[in-house]
Design goal:
Blueprint (H helix, E strand, L loop, with lengths): L5 E2 L7 H12 L15 E11 L6 E10 L2 E3 L2 E3 L4 E10 L10 E4 L9 E4 L4 H12 L3 E2 L2 E5 L9 E3 L7 E5 L3 E5 L2 E2 L5 H11 L10 E5 L9 E8 L5 E2 H10 L5 H21 L3 E3 L1 H21 L7 H16 L4 E3 L11 E3 L5 E3 L10 H4 L6 H15 L8 H19 L7 H22 L5 H12 L4
Parallel strand pairs: 1-9
Antiparallel strand pairs: 2-3, 3-6, 4-5, 6-8, 6-14, 7-8, 9-10, 10-15, 11-12, 12-13, 13-16, 15-16, 17-20, 18-19, 20-21
Helix pairs in contact: 3-5, 4-9, 5-10, 6-7, 6-11, 7-11, 7-12, 9-10, 9-11, 11-12
Length: 466
């Protein structure tokens, strides 16, 4: 095993102040910036680590920066502590053309005056520095690089350019490093759950090979997860692209959906073995239903076209509350938390893998780590089939979606011996809650897509699902 490398670091004063005007312009434009639509009033430094000293042509800084943005409320704008972002800042005298997409800007003052700074993940040398730190289990300032298995030192990196809510680097078709951009202190399910599944021998989730942690505050009880290195599934296609491709060709996707249902059930079964399960009774379900009803009212105020369907949608939640009041209970366990076709990979051999266990990034970690009924994951996948049926470029294909939805639940039942369709009230409530979220999201970000969730809203508000 390689000997761990430990070194302390010192950085010059005023680095963040010199980057401040550039970050004001660059950060809000990034796909993974969570505070779009609200002004950035300032930045504060959470942690700063020099990974490569600026002695030659290249310097590398790791920053954890809090972006301060006011929140709107009925009383006007209110203060907010701000989201913390992980930045890898590369520094060069001039940027070669191949790195032009990574440009942040040209520094005018401070310790980096006269230099050009950029997103270092697009550069092979900084990406190699990160992998070497993981390979040697380095401790650099407040950063800890940890691993479970040996890592080869000669893997060539390339950044994944597809839009996503985090950033990824592939190393030699052997590993993929997912770097979280918006980071929070505490136990992150994106590492916690794959580690638990690896201990259970579940083959449907790539096991973590290594990970990066940060301890920015001396004596703090909670660390930040910054990134996870996992095996790269070479030649795999994500479920969303695969479904759209099959639909565009007029091909039936039921067999793939059924296999995906089996894979989901395998993951749920392993999680139930690995981590505690709980029983949800009347009190817990009251809280769950109240949250769903509140989200419905808020969405209806923001999206007027949702208004006519509110009574029917509310009935989905009331039916669930009635069952709880009659004494019915439900089992809850750890689940994926944000499951859809884009969170699934199919290998060239036909095997399905589930990825990205961080849950909904906008929610607090404590909420993402709560035990929940498996129907929440199932509902997310059912909605994803519906989205695909409206997104392949041709006319909507509701029959295709219905076949996929049925096949997925059938596959799930074959493994778990539990068919989610046998609890239609709970499944309808979760699917309704998801569709309401989609209506609000599309109205804010992609108005042209609003008819997709509204078509589901009409179905869910009109009657119980078959």
């Amino acid at each position: 095993m390689s000997e761990a490398v430990t070194r302390s670091v010192t950085t010059g004063p005023g680095l963040l102040a010199s980057l401040d005007p550039l970050l004001h312009e660059w950060l809000p434009r990034q796909r993974w910036f969570a505070g779009k639509g609200r002004p950035v009033t300032g930045f504060s430094l959470v942690a700063e680590t020099e990974l490569l000293p600026l002695e030659g042509k290249l310097g590398l800084y790791h920053l954890m920066v809090r972006a301060h943005q006011p929140l709107a409320s009925v009383q006007g704008t209110v203060p907010h502590p701000g989201d913390c972002y992980q930045l890898l800042i590369g520094v060069r005298e001039a940027l070669p053309p191949r790195l032009a997409p990574a440009l942040i800007g040209h520094v005018q003052r401070g310790p980096l005056a006269g230099h050009t700074v950029y997103d270092a993940l697009y550069d092979s040398r900084p990406a190699e520095v990160i992998l070497e730190a993981l390979r040697t289990q380095a401790r650099i300032g407040g950063l800890r690089f940890e691993r479970r298995e040996e890592i080869r030192p000669d893997l060539v990196p390339r950044v994944v350019t597809a839009e996503q809510s985090n950033s990824s680097v592939v190393y030699g078709d052997t590993f993929i490093l997912k770097l979280l951009r918006r980071v929070l202190p505490g136990i992150n399910p994106d590492l916690e759950l794959p580690l638990a599944l690896a201990r259970e021998g579940c083959s449907r989730v790539p096991p973590p090979t290594a990970w990066i942690m940060a301890d920015p505050d001396l004596g703090a009880d909670e660390s930040y997860l910054l990134g996870v290195l996992q095996p790269f599934v070479q030649g795999a296609c994500d479920g969303w692209e695969l479904a759209l491709r099959e639909l565009a060709k007029g091909e039936d996707f039921s067999a793939g959906a059924r296999a995906l249902g089996r894979a989901t059930a395998e993951v749920h079964t392993a999680l139930a073995r690995a981590l505690p399960t709980v029983t949800l009774g009347h009190t817990q379900m009251q809280s769950l239903v109240a949250g769903m009803a509140e989200r419905l009212e808020a969405a209806a105020q923001a999206v007027p076209s949702l208004g006519p369907y509110v009574p029917g949608l509310r009935s989905a939640f009331e039916a669930l509350a009635d069952l709880a009041a009659e004494g019915q209970t439900w089992t809850a366990q750890r689940i994926h938390g944000d499951l859809h076709l884009g969170q699934c990979l199919r290998s060239p051999s036909g095997e399905w893998w589930l990825i990205d266990f961080e849950g909904e990034p906008a929610k607090p970690l404590a909420e993402r780590r709560m035990a929940q009924p498996v129907e929440r994951d199932v509902a997310g996948m059912l909605r994803s089939f519906d989205y695909a049926a409206h997104s392949a470029g041709g006319p909507p294909a509701p029959e295709w979606a219905a076949a996929c939805r049925a096949a997925y639940c059938t596959g799930y039942a074959e493994v778990s011996e539990y068919d989610p369709r046998t609890d239609p009230v709970l499944l309808r409530a979760y699917e309704t809650d998801k569709a309401i979220y989609e209506v609000l999201y599309e109205a804010r970000h992609r108005p042209d897509w609003l008819p997709v969730p509204l078509s589901a809203v009409r179905r869910l508000a009109g009657s119980e699902p078959a």
